[in-house]
Amino acid sequence: MEAVAVLPSSCATSYFERSPVTIHNKTRSCFSSTSCGRLNRRASTSHLAAFTKHSLLFSKFSIRPPPAKSHARRSANGIFLPHLVASMEQVEETYIMVKPDGVQRGLVGEIISRFEKKGFRLTGLKLFQCPKELAEEHYKDLKTKSFFPKLINYITSGPVVCMAWEGVGAVASARKLIGSTNPLQAEPGTIRGDLAVQTGRNVVHGSDSPENGKREIALWFKEGELCQWTAVQAPWLRE
């Protein structure tokens, strides 16, 4: 059986009336039109394919994504500032206070254990009823804030537990243990992330810089109330 090629009518009309060259060119034009039609149909359905023709999945060359922007000034949770980068060698002092809500809820032991397990050394501890004057001095940087009177009433509403802690990078590390100011934004595993739900009742205070750590310890502890001692576990914490 012979194969018969069927040409479009425009090509077959004057097949015997034209020269071979003309017929060849016309035939090529007809098949080119047919090929273009097929390509157009293929292009119109290309978006339905599982992978595009130039999919990077099977590419020999990988394209690296643009580098992420640096967040050197502060972390995502907003806890750290540049001066809070933990020192690997310097021993620091930090003031930690269990606020009235933490005392009333019986969380003192839980909070102390967090810092003990971390490896910090406790040098001062007392249960204390804070007078208004001391509270205002402690929070003097917030004096212009609208919530300042409410804050003072809160801190003086019941006894607080004052603590002085010492350790390598103690200030930054303690802030990380405590968590974000807003407990709902604090990471799970932090004190506020686990034990609090509202900024106005966030259980615990921690110094935000080594300088403030020294200032606050001097403000809340009198001379002779701090105890310097050597922990037997010290060689197991630092080389």
Automatic annotation (TrEMBL):
* Record has ATP-binding as a keyword: yes
Instruction: Give the species.
Output: Rubroshorea leprosula
| Full protein name | Nucleoside diphosphate kinase
Can you tell me which family this protein belongs to? Belongs to the NDK family.
Which GO terms are recorded in the biological process aspect for this UniProt protein? Answer: CTP biosynthetic process; GTP biosynthetic process; response to hydrogen peroxide; UTP biosynthetic process
Citing just one GO molecular function, the answer is: ATP binding
User: What chemistry does it catalyse, as a reaction equation?
Assistant: a ribonucleoside 5'-diphosphate + ATP = a ribonucleoside 5'-triphosphate + ADP; a 2'-deoxyribonucleoside 5'-diphosphate + ATP = a 2'-deoxyribonucleoside 5'-triphosphate + ADP
Instruction: Return the InterPro entries for the record.
Output: NDK-like_dom (IPR034907), NDK-like_dom_sf (IPR036850), Nucleoside_diP_kinase (IPR001564), Nucleoside_diP_kinase_AS (IPR023005)
Active-site residue numbers: H205
SMART domains from the UniProt entry: NDK (SM00562)
